[in-house]
Design a protein that fits this description.
Blueprint (H helix, E strand, L loop, with lengths): L6 E7 L3 E10 L2 E11 L3 E2 L2 E2 L2 H19 L5 E6 L5 E10 L7 H12 L7 E13 L2 E4 L9 E12 H13 L3 E7 H9 L2 H6 L1 E6 L4 E7 L2 E8 L3 H11 L4 H11 L12 E4 L8 E4 H25 L10 E4 L8 H9 L3 E3 L6 E2 L10 H12 L13 H16 L1
Parallel strand pairs: 1-6, 3-19, 6-11, 12-17, 17-18
Antiparallel strand pairs: 1-2, 2-3, 4-5, 7-10, 8-9, 8-10, 12-13, 13-14, 15-16
Helix pairs in contact: 1-3, 2-11, 4-10, 6-7, 6-8, 8-9
Length: 408
């Protein structure tokens, strides 16, 4: 059994599945020692809509991970997603008192950049520093110790609906877990699948899950943009169900087993057996018919993301290309279709930088779960919180600022 203080657990609460990943820190490296998954019931488009169903799914996924890792899980790093997530870039300026920049000045400039007007029902989840500018000199990562009169800081602020985050914490608490931190899911994915070179050169991660498609853009080593779209894998399944007149459960199985996002990649003589509804006999259809249903929906999702990238002016800032994660990224033809739309190199993202049961999590499906573990391993020792504490998000923001201070 791993020592309790060396364990880090990621809890990916998705629309189609709950995934628990247990990591143990051995000699500074994260070793994956346990994995538990269970179908998710109680979420819609990344947001909790039924607490009791979500609690039961979390319990089952945690129990499975505990059995495999031979440990008792008490605290998790929980992922958050959903259409309510919004990311904005902000800029702060302060005067330097003693001509030399200290870590306290860095905290002050980040506070200044974080002082943006946010609606009452929203709060800050992450404050992610992008770069610092000292007396007009930009591109500075760590200004501590430098001489200067004026310090500017650029940050990316991620905000979310307070109630959605509270419901995630409430579900985890009712499943017997403390929440060490709430982490944006695509930030977790980036920890697991991006190389330092890709972050520096500029890359985009597109996480196509069941309920939402998440986008995060990195350039010059920091996050420049985040976005969430309420179109994803479940919409593909729904289209198959209607198009082939088959139950949703069967449509999901057909999508996983025979699905292809590019009609041109399917041979004309390939056939599939499709179960019917109402006790009728199964039908045999061309696999091309299935691809003709899937391709327009996948193209719509990817076009939405591409339009967002172009609209924000980042189309030319991601030369390292696109990294696909999430369950729908496994579909045959998705990388090829993404290449056609973005005109950039595309690859499927699998978790790296880990040891232990690597083969078990070597799939885009587990990118977020493993990323939450990696995020947690780098941010351990921060105070945990339970639902019922006042202003949960102010505590998260405070921890982020503390982390930033320690980082610099």
């Amino acid at each position: 059994m791993g020592k309790k203080d060396s364990l880090v657990v990621g809890l990916d609460i998705g629309t189609t599945k709950i995934c628990t990943v247990v990591g143990e820190i051995v000699d500074g490296q994260v070793q994956i020692i346990g994995l538990g998954t269970h179908p998710s019931k109680g979420l819609r488009k990344g947001v909790v809509v039924n607490i009791e169903s979500t609690v039961q799914s979390i319990k089952k996924a945690v129990e499975e991970a505990e059995l495999m890792a031979d440990c008792h899980i008490t605290s998790v790093y929980a992922g958050i997603a959903g259409g309510h997530i919004k990311g904005i870039n902000s800029h702060g300026i302060i005067a330097i008192k003693n001509k030399e920049i200290t870590s306290n000045d860095v905290r002050r400039v980040i506070d200044a950049a974080s002082a943006v007007a946010i609606p009452m029902d929203r709060e800050i989840i992450h404050v992610l520093p992008q770069e610092f500018i000292v007396d007009g000199q930009d591109g500075i990562r760590d200004p501590v110790g430098m001489s200067g009169i004026r310090l500017e800081g650029k940050v990316h602020i991620v905000t979310g609906a307070i109630t959605s985050a509270q419901n995630i914490i409430k579900c985890a608490n009712r499943a017997g877990l403390d929440v060490a931190d709430i982490v944006l899911e695509q930030l977790g994915s980036s920890e697991a699948v991006l190389t330092p070179e890709e972050k520096e050169l500029g890359a985009a991660i597109i996480d196509i899950g069941g309920g939402t498609t998440d986008l995060v853009i990195f350039s010059n080593g920091s996050i420049k943009h985040t976005a969430v779209f309420s179109l994803a894998g479940n919409h593909i399944t729904h289209d198959i169900s209607i198009g082939l007149r088959t139950p949703l459960e069967e449509a999901e199985k057909i999508k996983i087993r025979y699905g292809c996002a590019l009609t041109s990649m399917v041979r004309k003589d390939e056939t599939i057996e499709v179960p019917s509804v109402g006790g009728r006999r199964p039908r045999v259809l061309s696999r091309q018919t299935l691809a003709e249903i899937i391709e327009p929906r996948v193209e719509e999702i990817l076009t939405l993301v591409h339009e967002e990238v172009v609209r924000m002016g980042y189309a030319n800032l991601i030369p390292a290309g696109v990294i696909l994660t999430g369950g729908s990224a496994i579909l045959e033809g998705v990388p090829e279709l993404t290449e056609q739309i973005f005109n950039l190199p595309v690859r499927r993202g699998v978790p790296t930088g880990i040891g232990g049961l690597v083969d078990l999590v070597s799939s885009p499906i587990y990118a977020t779960g493993v990323g939450l573990v990696l995020y947690g391993s780098r941010n351990r020792g921060k105070s945990r919180f339970r639902v019922g504490e006042e202003n949960i998000f102010s505590k998260v923001t405070h921890r982020m600022r503390e982390w930033i201070g320690e980082f610099f």
